[in-house]
Amino acid sequence: MKALVVGLVLSSVLVFGQNASDQNRTRTKTDIGTNVHYPDIDFYDSMTDYFRQSPRAVEAIAQKGISDQEIPAVLTIARKSSLSPNQVIDARKQGKTFEQIAQDAKVNLPGDGDFVTRANVRFLSEYHGRPEAEVRGMRAKGASFIEINQQYRRVGIKPRTEKPAAPGGR
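The structure assignment produced for this chain is given below.
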């Protein structure tokens, strides 16, 4: 009985602690779209749009221990192979690099750098309609992928997957 009570208390602490740490990622209507105060939310919005995933699916990948910059690598491998995102995550947790997982899945992504870098460069380039060399140049100057995404969103460049506003605001 004592073990059950201790287990319930620990579970409550973990759940409430998780909720408190996730407050930065809690979305509200005002957080959707270009919000320079929350560039990580904009990065998630861009990933959900580009990879055609629900916000919940992208957040679930992060909750499984995959860093924000690695999420495009998971989704790129899943998109270009028969693997699910969960299978990619499981392989990563078994100690494989994203490069090894991509090779095993026969996913070839040309470019410079490791697979995570190539996946992010491809994602940001295609999503924002910018040359890969431009994205790599911004990265070489020290910008994170989240910052690069935010910069493109701030200057008002509409991603190719977003439709322009209709005349008259409709």
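Interim note for the steering committee: DSSP finds nine helices and no strands in the chain. The radius of gyration is 18 Å.
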